Amino acid sequence: MAAAQNNSINGHIYDAQTRAAVGDLYVELLDQLGISLRRMRVDSTGRFFFGGLGSGTYNVKVVPLGTNYQETVQSVSLVSMPTGRGRMSSDSAYIDIYLKLDPRLVKTGSGGAATVVFAQDVPDEARKSYKKGVEMLADKKDEGLDALKKAIDIFPNYYDALDRLGNEYVRRGQPSQAVPYLVKAIDVNRRSYTSFYALGVASYNLKDLKAASEALRAASAINPNSINAQIFYGMVLRIGGSYERAEKALLQAKKLAESTPVAEIHWQLALLYEKTGRYKQAADELETFLKVEPKAANAEQIKKLIENFRAKAK
Prior knowledge:
Blueprint: E1 7-15, E2 26-30, E3 36-41, E4 47-53, E5 56-63, E6 72-78, E7 82-84, E8 87-88, E9 92-99, H1 124-138, H2 143-154, H3 159-171, H4 175-188, H5 193-205, H6 209-222, H7 227-239, H8 243-256, H9 263-275, H10 279-292, H11 299-313
Parallel strand pairs: 1-9
Antiparallel strand pairs: 1-4, 2-3, 2-5, 5-6, 7-8
Helix pairs in contact: 1-2, 2-3, 3-4, 3-5, 4-5, 5-6, 5-7, 6-7, 7-8, 7-9, 8-9, 9-10, 10-11
């Protein structure tokens, strides 16, 4: 690999059958030898981004743990060209990755897909506007929102457009704008994990814990292997005082994350155990949190908190 320039790779992950966004998965960036360089977890929009890359050939691998999808790898080449005065141009690649169901795990068409299995007969004009909107948003052009709205105006029950627009508003921190589109998407497709999850996030940000809890309960039921849904559901239940149900959700998230520990799970469990007077367990979870996140900004405060919990547990 050449010295690092400001090259980048970004894109989205979709279901090959339904063309719906697939989120809550790990994406790895590999070099030509198959060595992992970076790893990230995509959110409900299915978008991934790797920046600050040098020239060369990379492989983007989707690791669909806990789903019925096949592992997928796609090759990408980046080239930086000299522009004079010792400077190099930047190269950017955009790729869409379409996941197929693993025939060893599920029979295609049986209703056993990992996420949304939903098809519609969409008018060509609406489909073109939707595709244009997705491409513009990938290029960080706000006009993509208008293109998605146009697709919905043409075909009001356009699930993909409703779900994507609602998720986009959640990502932008505009929950009140997101809710109507997500509710409509769910009316059209009651098995939409991405819509329920995003609605849970939006409702939480609007301080509507009841709506958030109901949406996240549905998301975790549709995709019980979603670590993100279980964490968020457990957090909302804890805040709302439903401690037993909160613990069940968080322990499920902990079980799902055994191979790749997630610090947030241990933080949430520590808060729950402290609230219910189980100080030893709270201290244990905080210690695990620091093992997973040793460079946490508040590490010293957490260590003192652990000492305090240990003292209370005696």
